[in-house]
Design goal:
It is found in: Cytoplasm. This protein is α/β, with parallel strands linked by helices and 190 residues long. It is built from five helices and eleven strands. The protein binds zinc ion.
C-alpha cells in the first residue's frame, strides 16, 4: 500500500541530501524514481536538487501551474517512488495531486521541506502536507546559536538584525536564514 510521506525540518537539516540518498537507494535496486523540486528555489541553478555538501542531480521543476499527477501519469515506464524537494512551495492543489499519485496510481510519494517560514507561519505546501500525509517525520538539526533542537528559521537582514515580517518568499535577496530553537528565534545573540 503506497503512502504519502512528509519529512520536514528547519534550514540545514539535510532534506536535500536525504532526497538524493533515497533516490540512490531505490535506483541501486533498479527501481526508478521521479524527482521534483520547486521552481521557486533557484539558489543553485534551476532544475536541480542540490545539497550543501556538494552533491546534486537534475529534477523536474514544479511551477505554480504544474500538474504533478499528470506528469507522473504520463511518464512512460514504471515509477517506484516520487520524491519532491522544497514541498513547502507547493500549492494546495498540488498537494492534492500528490495524494492522487498515492491513492490512484499506488506510487509512494515522499515530500521534503520546511514547515514554518521566517515569520513562523506555515507555508501553503506545509499546511496541506500536515493535513494529508500518512506519515509525518521531523528531520532534526541543532540550533545555530545553542545546543537545543532547531525548530524555526530565523531571517537576518543586510543590517545583521533579525526580520520577523515581510513577504513569505524572498527571491534574490542577500538575507540569510539560520536554523534556530524557539528561544534563539525570539532572542538571537546577534
Ligand atoms: Zn538556540
Amino acid at each position: 500500500m503506497a503512502q504519502l510521506y512528509y519529512r520536514y525540518g528547519a534550514m540545514n537539516s539535510g532534506k536535500s541530501i536525504e532526497v538524493l540518498k533515497v533516490a540512490h537507494n531505490y535506483e541501486e535496486q533498479n527501481k526508478p524514481v521521479l524527482i521534483f523540486t520547486s521552481a521557486v528555489d533557484n539558489r543553485d541553478g534551476v532544475g536541480y536538487v542540490s545539497s550543501r555538501i556538494g552533491l546534486k542531480r537534475p529534477a523536474r521543476l514544479v511551477h505554480a501551474d504544474t500538474n504533478i499527477f499528470r506528469e507522473v501519469s504520463l511518464h512512460g515506464g514504471p515509477v517506484s517512488c516520487v520524491l519532491v524537494d522544497e514541498v513547502q512551495f507547493l500549492t494546495k492543489e498540488q498537494v492534492l495531486q500528490l495524494t492522487r499519485i498515492v491513492d490512484e496510481l499506488d506510487i509512494p510519494v515522499m515530500g521534503f521541506g520546511l514547515k514554518n517560514d521566517f515569520r513562523n507561519e506555515l507555508f501553503e505546501g506545509s499546511h496541506y502536507m500536515l493535513l494529508y500525509a500518512d506519515k509525518i517525520e521531523e528531520m532534526k538539526t541543532i540550533c545555530w546559536f545553542c545546543e537545543r533542537k532547531a525548530t524555526m528559521n530565523l531571517r537576518v537582514g543586510d543590517d545583521g538584525k533579525p526580520v520577523y515580517s515581510g513577504e513569505q518568499i524572498q527571491i534574490g535577496g542577500n538575507e540569510r536564514y539560520y536554523p534556530v530553537c524557539r528561544r534563539c528565534y525570539f532572542h538571537p545573540p546577534l
